[in-house]
Amino acid sequence: MAVTPREVERLYVQVNKFALASHFFWALWALIQNQFSTIDFDFLRYAVIRFHQYFKVKPQVSALEMPK
């Protein structure tokens, strides 16, 4: 079965929107870990990196529309 260009475009939009959500999720997780974890890791720096990426790509990803 062949994949149509429309299916590829739909997948592209979905993957990018889920990737955006992933950046936000891991940034929040890192903020929580920064407060409560006993692991020696710079969770705050990791949160800043993930939030930076979230806000960097948010305008482009938000503009993506699911093909009709």
What's this, in brief?
With 68 residues, the chain is mainly alpha-helical.
Describe this protein's structure.
This protein is mostly helical and 68 residues long. 78% of the residues lie in helices and 0% in strands. The protein has 2 helices and no strands. Helix 1 runs antiparallel to helix 2. The mean pLDDT is 97. InterPro entries: Kinase-like_dom_sf.
* Approximate helicity band: over 70%
Number of strands: 0
Low-confidence stretches: none
Report the portion of residues in β strands. under 5%
Enzyme class: transferase
Pfam families: Choline_kinase (PF01633)
InterPro entries: Kinase-like_dom_sf
GO molecular function: ethanolamine kinase activity
Core attributes:
68 residues; 2 helices; 0% strand
Q: What's the SSE blueprint?
A:
Blueprint (H helix, E strand, L loop, with lengths): L4 H32 L6 H21 L5
Helix pairs in contact: 1-2
GO biological process, one term: phosphatidylethanolamine biosynthetic process
Pathway: Phospholipid metabolism; phosphatidylethanolamine biosynthesis; phosphatidylethanolamine from ethanolamine: step 1/3
Keywords: Lipid biosynthesis, Lipid metabolism, Phospholipid biosynthesis, Phospholipid metabolism
